[in-house]
Amino acid sequence: MKVKGNHLILSFVCIVLGFMISFSYQFTKTENNEANRITNRQWEREYEYRNTLVKQEELNRNLQQELFERQEKIREIEENLADQEQVLFNLVEDVEKLRMYVGEIKIQGPGVEVTLEDASYVPSEANVNNYIVHEGHLHNVINELLISGANAIAINGQRIFHDSYISCIGPVVSVDGTQHPAPFVITAVGDSDVLDAALNITGGVKDQLVNDNINVKIAKQQQIILEPQLGQD
């Protein structure tokens, strides 16, 4: 009976131990399966996140490229507008110069005033024509002023232009049909220093006029105003 009792106890212990081992195995297996399922889900989420990130980065690259292309187009448009603006500015400037040259607008600024007078003394035996101002003298002064950069010129207040006609009619000079007696005051708008230097150069216009017995006065002016041509706006 004692042996049987021991066997019974041993059998019970073996059964319990087997149950515990089986339970532990099943529990461990379940935990491993659950861990695998969690790992798989994490991997799937990470894969989705990675794909989303890749797609987002590709979209960003496409948007960045589109931005660069649009910026380049904007730059080209701005350059074209700048060129057009410069062309328009040049055209407006040219139009203003043309209007100034044809006498449509008033012009003002610094310049010089040249006064030509007949000789104050004429010897009795001399030819009086050699002591008065002729159209050639006026032409010499006007040409020198134009060459030196004068923007506008007038004789006794009358604007002259590229097609103006100057001629002597006895003791007077006709400018585009309008007669002017001496003295002749030629006013020119431009750089007064340049114009004055050009007229006073040694052997230049002033010396030639003096040699022709013409009284010459040259004065710089801070402000000269030349009105538009009669009949123009």
UniProtKB/TrEMBL annotation:
InterPro entries: DUF881. Keywords: Coiled coil. Residues 53-94 form a coiled coil. Gene3D superfamilies: Protein of unknown function DUF881 (3.30.70.1880). Signal peptide: none annotated. PANTHER family: UPF0749 PROTEIN RV1825 (PTHR37313), UPF0749 PROTEIN YLXX (PTHR37313:SF2). Belongs to the UPF0749 family. This is DUF881 domain-containing protein. It comes from Bacillus mesophilus.
